[in-house]
Every structure is written in structure tokens, then in C-alpha cells.
Design brief:
β7 and β8 form a beta hairpin. The chain starts with a strand and ends with a strand. It has 3 domains: 85 residues, no CATH class; 105 residues, Diaminopimelate Epimerase, Chain A, domain 1; 272 residues, TIM Barrel. The chain is of the alpha/beta class. The longest helix is centred in the middle third of the chain and has 18 residues.
């Protein structure tokens, strides 16, 4: 591969390449594997960085583990500000008892503490944090002892955000972008919004993203009006999309379902927008030349979205609606008729394969919440792809880690037989499709062809594979003389590639 400036100018045999570029500087890769750089189509940069610096609760297996991790975190963090912790998931614990508020207060020494569930749609909090926003006690979703959800959670999350200093925010964003580059990620879609970060936060992130970092494509999750549209355009926001919540999450019992939760049979989840809201938003964004989009997980929420898009189509027309390249985040509970409607409207599904790896299967969290039969229908990647819906892969970091090869593998080895996609399709979803999802449809971004941006990653990888006509794979030699294009072996349990270098438009943004 030959590069001039920020552009690939040759891909092919060594001999012709050297003849065409006799004075080029050569960088021998010693058998390393080169791919387009990854795109993560759904992240929350500041929250991810703060969680990197805070207490990691993903390894906890019970209330006592959570409390022990909090005590250690309290010892190493200054008393001022909020202690941030993330990742508890009681659905995987032998005993699902959560720590009480009094136990949390004791563990953190009476300071404000904010402990998000792994899906970030509910949180355990300390008494001192509640005192920073006492009106949370009157909000929907308040609990005096257990996790706070819905509006009460949003109020307390805002209190945490206001306690974060600009210096902490900048350090968190820098840490996130650095970590993403080390994973071979060259572009992220930041899903900001008034319930998640703030205008100042997303503006700071966009300012920080330069030639030496992954590219940041920003979305703002707020219903459209003239002021919001104007500010979004001035900041360079790609769309009023991302986490504009129609509902919540399955793990927190806030995703909106058609039928009740199996483990909470008197509860269908929560709905934050109606079909009129959806329709008006899509129409306004379409006319303003911005992408519209929504966070939607439950099938009850999807019904609202489908009805809203149907009304929007009647107002702006099918062609204009399709040209808007709108998007939906997560889209976990969807059937073929709804998928066919999304394909007709040219709506992207921004999906997170690691959700299935973590919570799918007959004994996973999905089965606990929904029962095995309904759980087996979640995240139907193959059906979505077969109906023509563009799949863009992402992490929803900090919900799951920025780990694109692991996400590619999860998309292939779906925990429901027949719902996975081929390695090549999974890789495309995490590279080229990420650009298309953001409205970049030039045909070359996310590829390694002459004329494409010199944006790529170099990997230490083992055996390579090529997708065969059937679901199996054929293994090929990694001898460079074989010239067989391929992907690393993605079988569960095999080592995933290790990033050696990440390059964005000719500039190295990470080197091992």
C-alpha cells in the first residue's frame, strides 16, 4: 500500500508499487495485518472517560463486592466532587440483593456517589448525592432505597454532571479518545444530549478532536425546534439523533414493551415520547437537512417510532424521508414488517453486538426479563441485513467497552442460532457502514483503495479466514505470498488481534 499525504494512492503487488513510487519511504510491517480503521457508531465520551477514572463495578458478583470496590475507590479519590462508579449488573449475581443506601453511605464516607447500572438507565446513589438535587425525590422513578430510574435518574445525573469540573471533563475526554485510538478506532459517533452531557461538553469534545485523535461525529438527542436546530448547525452537529429517548433499557425495566416483563408482570416499561413527537421531530430534521434519530429498544417503543415515521412520510414524502438518512439506536426488539419499513425509509440501525454477548442466551438477562421465547428474538442482525437495513456497529460505551474486534465476533457468533451475520458483513458494519450511517456515502471511506483517505490500523493477528459460501469458514495461510484477503479467526476463545498502529488521514494517532 502506498500513501501520499493523507490519501492512499496504490494497493497491489510490491513490484509495480515500488516501480511507481521509487523514492517512497518504506515501512516494513513484518507480516502484520492491515485493515481500514474502525468506526464506533455510538459512544458517550465524557461518561466513558469518567468511568475509566472511577470505580469499575463490572467484575462485582454481589452487594459485598460493590461495597468493597467503593471503599477502595473512596480511599484513592479526593473527598470533594462526586465518586463515580459504573457497571453493576445484578442479573448475573448469585444473590441479586443490591447494597442499601446506608451501606453505600458508609462505604464512601458520606460523600456524593453515583453508581450506574451497566445499561446506564438506572443508578444507585448515596444520600449526599440526593442532597445535591433533593427535588429528585418528587420525580418519576424515585426510590428511597433501591435504584433510581426514569426522571429521578435524569435529575441526579444532571447533578453529577454539574459537579464535574472543566478540568475533569477535559481529562476524561482525552482519556477516552486515547483509549479508542489504541483499539484501532479512527472515528466515533458521540451521542450527546441534555439528559446526558450538555452543549458545553459536546463543544469541548469537538474542539479536542483534531488530526491526532479519532474523528468525532456528534449527535444531539433533543426534540427539534428553531433554537436547537440553529445551535446544532453552528456547532457542526450531524443530527438531532443518538440517544433521544423513546424508552429506556431492558435491564432497568424501562424499555417499553407491548407485553409486560416476565419478572415484573405488572409493568410494561416507560415511554418518553409519543408518535406525534416522533413525527414532528422527523419532519423538522428532514426539512432542516439534519439526521433525525431515536433511542428505541422495546417493541412497544418501536411501535411509536414506526407510527411517527409513517406520519412523517405522509407529510414530507417518501423520497425526502429516505434522503434524510435517519437512524435508530439499538433497535433490539424488531420483527420483519418493521424492518422492511425501516429499509424502505433508508433508516440505519445502530446496533451493539456486545449486548447479545453479555445478556443473550437462554440464561441471560434478556431471558430473565422477557422469558426465553421473546429473548431469542432480540438483536436479529441477519434478518435486519436481509431486509436491506444498514447495520452500523458500536459499543454504547461505557455500557460495553470499545473493543471492535470483540464486537465483530459477537455479531458473527450470535447467541441465537441464525441471528448472526458473516464475518465480512460484521466487519463492514464496524467500518464502512459507520461512515454511511453518518451520511458519508462516498463509497470509499472505510476502505483501502486508491483515492480513499489513508485511515487504517495495523494489527498483530494470527490465522486469517475468508468467508465461504456456507456459514463455515475456510482457513488460509498468512504467508504474504498467498495474497488471500481475509479476516482474523473469530472463533470464541481464540485471541483477537492486537493493535500496533492506528492512522487517521496519514497521521499516526496510536503506536504500540
Amino acid at each position: 500500500m502506498a500513501i501520499t499525504g493523507d490519501t492512499i494512492v496504490w494497493v497491489g503487488q510490491d513490484g509495480p508499487g515500488r516501480a511507481l513510487h521509487p523514492d517512497a519511504e518504506e515501512v516494513p510491517l513484518d507480516g502484520a495485518f492491515v485493515t481500514p480503521g474502525f468506526v464506533d457508531a455510538h459512544v458517550h465520551a465524557t461518561a466513558s472517560g469518567l468511568h475509566q477514572a472511577g470505580a469499575d463495578l463490572t467484575g462485582a458478583r454481589g452487594a459485598q463486592d460493590v461495597l468493597a470496590l467503593l471503599r477502595k475507590a473512596a480511599e484513592r479519590t479526593p473527598p470533594e466532587g462526586v465518586l463515580v462508579a459504573h457497571g453493576w449488573d445484578e442479573s448475573a449475581w448469585p444473590d441479586a440483593r443490591l447494597p442499601s443506601r446506608a451501606e453505600i453511605d458508609d462505604a464512601v464516607g458520606g460523600r456524593p456517589a453515583y453508581l450506574t447500572r451497566i445499561d446506564v438507565h438506572s443508578a444507585l446513589v448515596s444520600t449526599a448525592l440526593v442532597e445535591l438535587a433533593p427535588h429528585a425525590r418528587e420525580a418519576d422513578g424515585w426510590s428511597a432505597e433501591g435504584p433510581v430510574r426514569a426522571e429521578a435518574h435524569h435529575v441526579l445525573r444532571a447533578a453529577v454532571r454539574s459537579a464535574v469540573t472543566p478540568q475533569q471533563r477535559d481529562a476524561a475526554q482525552h482519556a477516552f479518545l486515547t483509549a479508542a485510538a489504541a483499539r484501532g478506532v479512527v472515528c466515533v459517533h458521540e451521542c450527546a444530549g441534555p439528559d446526558l452531557s450538555g452543549w458545553e461538553d459536546v463543544a469541548a469534545l469537538l474542539d479536542k478532536a483534531g488530526p491526532g485523535t479519532p474523528e468525532v461525529i456528534a449527535y444531539w438527542g433533543e426534540l427539534a425546534d428553531d433554537a436547537v436546530i440553529d445551535r446544532a448547525k453552528r456547532l457542526g452537529i450531524r443530527g438531532l439523533a443518538g440517544d433521544l429517548f423513546v424508552d429506556g433499557a431492558l435491564g432497568s425495566h424501562t424499555a417499553r414493551l407491548r407485553a409486560p416483563y416476565q419478572d415484573e408482570p405488572d409493568h410494561n416499561g416507560r415511554l418518553y415520547l409519543d408518535a406525534d413527537d416522533v413525527a414532528e421531530h422527523v419532519v423538522a430534521c428532514t426539512r432542516a437537512g439534519l439526521q433525525a434519530g431515536f433511542h428505541v429498544i422495546g417493541d412497544g417503543a418501536l411501535d411509536v417510532v414506526i407510527e411517527g415515521f409513517t406520519r412523517a412520510e405522509a407529510e414530507v414524502g417518501a423520497a425526502a424521508l429516505a434522503a434524510g438518512m435517519h437512524r435508530l439506536e439499538h433497535v433490539e426488539m424488531i420483527g420483519r414488517p418493521e424492518a422492511e419499513a425501516l429499509a424502505r425509509w433508508n433508516v440505519t440501525a445502530s446496533v451493539q453486538p456486545l449486548f447479545d454477548e453479555l445478556w443473550g442466551g437462554p440464561d441471560g438477562m434478556y431471558a430473565q426479563r422477557l422469558g426465553k421465547e421473546r429473548a431469542a428474538t432480540l438483536n436479529p442482525f441477519s434478518m435486519l441485513a436481509a431486509t436491506g437495513v444498514l447495520l452500523a456497529g458500536g459499543s454504547d460505551s461505557p455500557v460495553t467497552p470499545v473493543d471492535p474486534w470483540r464486537s465483530v465476533r459477537a455479531a458473527v457468533h450470535h447467541r441465537t442460532e441464525g441471528s448472526g451475520i458473516s464475518p465480512r458483513a460484521a466487519f463492514t458494519a464496524h467500518t464502512k457502514a459507520g461512515y454511511r450511517a453518518a451520511g458519508v456515502d462516498d463509497g470509499i471511506s472505510g476502505t483501502l483503495v486508491p483515492g480513499a483517505p489513508a485511515t487504517y490500523a495495523v494489527w498483530e493477528a494470527g490465522e486469517l479466514v475468508v468467508a465461504a459460501p456456507d456459514p463455515r469458514v475456510q482457513r488460509w495461510s498468512t504467508d504474504p505470498r498467498s495474497r488471500v484477503p481475509g479476516l482474523p479467526v473469530l472463533e470464541p476463545g481464540t485471541p483477537l488481534p492486537s493493535c500496533l498502529r492506528t492512522v487517521r488521514r496519514g497521521v499516526t494517532i496510536y503506536a504500540a
